[in-house]
Amino acid sequence: PRSFMDSNGDGIGDLKGIMLKLDYLKELGVDCIWLSPIYDSPCDDNGYDIRDYYAILDEYGTMEEFDQLLEELHQRDMKLIMDLVVNHTSDEHPWFQEALKIPNSKYKEYYFFQKSKDQNPPNNWTSFFSGSAWNYYEELDEWALHLFSKKQMDLNWDNEKVRKDIHKMIRWWLNKGVDGFRLDVINYISKREGLPQGNETIGKLMGYYGVENYYYGPNLHKYLQEIRAEAFEPYGAFSVGETPGVGMEMSKLLTADYRKELDMVFSFDHLETPGHVRFDDYEYDLNYLKEYYINWMEHYGNACWMSLFYENHDNPRMISKVSKNNLHREQLAKLLAMIQFTLKGTPFIFQGQEIGSVNKNFRTMEDLRDVESIRLYQELLTTVSPDKAFKEVLSGSRDHARTPMQWSNKKNGGFTEGTPWIYTDEDYKEWNVESQLGNENSVLYFYKKLIGLRKEHKALIYGDFEAVHKKKKDRFTYFRKLGNEVFYIECNLSSHSIKRYSSIQGYELVLSNYNTLANELRPYEANLYKLST
Ligand code: ISL
Ligand code: CA
Fold it and tell me: What is the pLDDT of residue 53?
């Protein structure tokens, strides 16, 4: 929301700005929008630190404007998913404030407050944003747990009152008519009793200490089934859980329809190739993406339904991950789209992905805004030079995806009349929505065509998945079949030409990122064929 569209020139995207662009989204074929947090917040972590679950952040607009946005969406037959951030609240939330100030307040039991036997934090858990996961409060001589920033205090889900208050809040939004939720780090909500010391080996391996005590805690299923029964189910609300680190087998337990927990999860194992973390300086090998998808397509089972995505507000752009210099940018953008929209599952695209956005040329640390990047930089400075630290931060910074939408080649890419809240480079002069709307061969049109094809052909949504030439490096080829309808997808995952393997006799070409066929498969070529009937 902060970077989508600014309607009043203060440099910050807002709800009115989103309303200005609903026709654009509808035209593209979008059925549903997921809004990152728009609740009242001091914005230490881009709104993932909520101060009031029942209010809209002033910078974004008013509750009346929210109601209007929801109505405008529904009028267009589109749906709205809100971000539900309930693993933690802001330290400025009244619950936490009262816990600090009022002796014997019931709200102390809403969080994890602990004494320590010495000067050190109660255990060795680390925060995802560098340093200890504990913050010391002098007024109480106690520490409180925060897995993320010092201003994001973990809620104690083992306290029934916390759960009840959250169910009530969810129902309040559902009563307004919102259609569902994306549940932030929802697999972290149940912590192992007593918050045991984090295992050293796992800590070193993962880069974070303590994760084995909450990635998949003892009461997770119970709490999810409870939310479902108390809030989602009566309203027929949709849910997608953000669940870092769970893997396929756990994802099955979280999403199998008969278990009544979540509808889908966002699993992240495909976002880095094995052995790498986001801040590594490396190029992503698409052969791994192929392996990952074949595995999920073949083993996730019929009771589960997959989410399909590469990008979100927490990751650099996928094109830049694959090719640091963004070589073959347009073909690569279309290849990624082809894969995402022809597999079995629900595609989620992140703003700007549909025009082939790439990472930004940030000049110095001053250009960055994200708390994770800033804290990591400070931590790195204790061991490496400023240049090296900046370079490492740039490899994985979440800010690459958080810069303004590039609507046109005008000032600030048409995002704002004022000064944008975050730096952006000059890429918008060439890569923007307006110019791509005027070009039927653009990345944007490619997305539009793919979305249209899925809506037209059920085989692309529900059809069986069948991979061929599985072991052949650099090619990803598969069928989607439903009844008499058969589609064949043929992709070159590399930046060089490769031999064509399959015979495509009897098939008609429906969509290609090169428009016409050649004898070979050219760099990142992606073709969609339909069996002629
Ligand atoms: O830091 C991680 C471990 O490598 C991530 O997987 C992390 O758990 C994940 O990015 C969580 O993201 C969500 O919760 C955060 C927020 O900063 C992100 O923007 C949000 O998407 C805390 O609310
Ligand atoms: Ca604004």
Answer: 99
Task: Mark 223-251 as b/e (b = at least 16 C-beta within 10 Å).
Answer: bbebbbebbbeebebbbbbbbbbbebebb
| Count of beta carbons in the 10 Å neighbourhood of residue 388 | 12
CA proximity to 249, closest of 184, 301, 308: 301
Does residue 434 register a pLDDT over 90?
yes
What are the backbone dihedrals phi and psi of residue 167, each rounded to the nearest 5 degrees, phi first? Answer: -60, -40
Q: Is the CB of 244 under 6 A from ligand 1?
A: yes
Judge contact between 225 and 257, C-beta under 8 A.
Answer: no
**Any ligand 1 atom below 6 A from CB of 83:** no
* Res 255 pLDDT > 80: yes
**Residue 148 CB less than 6 A away from ligand 1:** yes
pLDDT of 518 reads: 94
Q: How many CB atoms lie within 10 A of CB 455?
A: 12
Distance CA(360)–CA(266), nearest Å, equals 25
Mutational test site, ligand 1, from 38, 145, 148, 150, max ligand atoms within 8 Å of CB: 148
Taking Cα atoms as reference points, which of 68, 115, 3 lies closest to residue 414?
3
CA-proximal residue: ligand 1, atom 15 (nearest): 48
Atom number of ligand 1 nearest to Cα 372 = 17
* Atom 4 of ligand 1: nearest residue by CA position: 128
Question: Does 185 sit in the ligand 1 pocket, CB within 6 Å?
Answer: yes
Name the band, by pLDDT with cuts 50, 70 and 90, for residue 409: very high
- Cα–Cα distance measured from residue 282 to residue 473, given in angstroms and rounded to the nearest whole number: 19
| Closest by CA position to 476, among listed 290, 224, 212 | 290
Residue nearest ligand 1's atom 8 by CA: 244
CB distance 184 to ligand 1 below 6 Å: yes
- Beta strands (DSSP E) in 215-319 are 238-242, 264-266, 307-308
Atom of ligand 1 nearest to the CA of 148: 22
Please tell me the distance from the alpha carbon of residue 39 to that of residue 47, in angstroms, as a whole number: 7
The CA–CA distances, whole Å, from 386 to 367, 368, 369, 383, 399 equal 15, 15, 17, 10, 19
> What sign has the CA pseudo-torsion 27, 28, 33, 35?
negative
Show which residues are catalytic.
184, 242
pLDDT attached to residue 500: 86
Whether 502 shows a pLDDT value over 80: the answer reads: no
Q: Are 190 and 223 in contact (CB under 8 A)?
A: yes
Terminal C-alpha separation, the chain: 45
Percent of the chain at pLDDT > 70 equals: 100
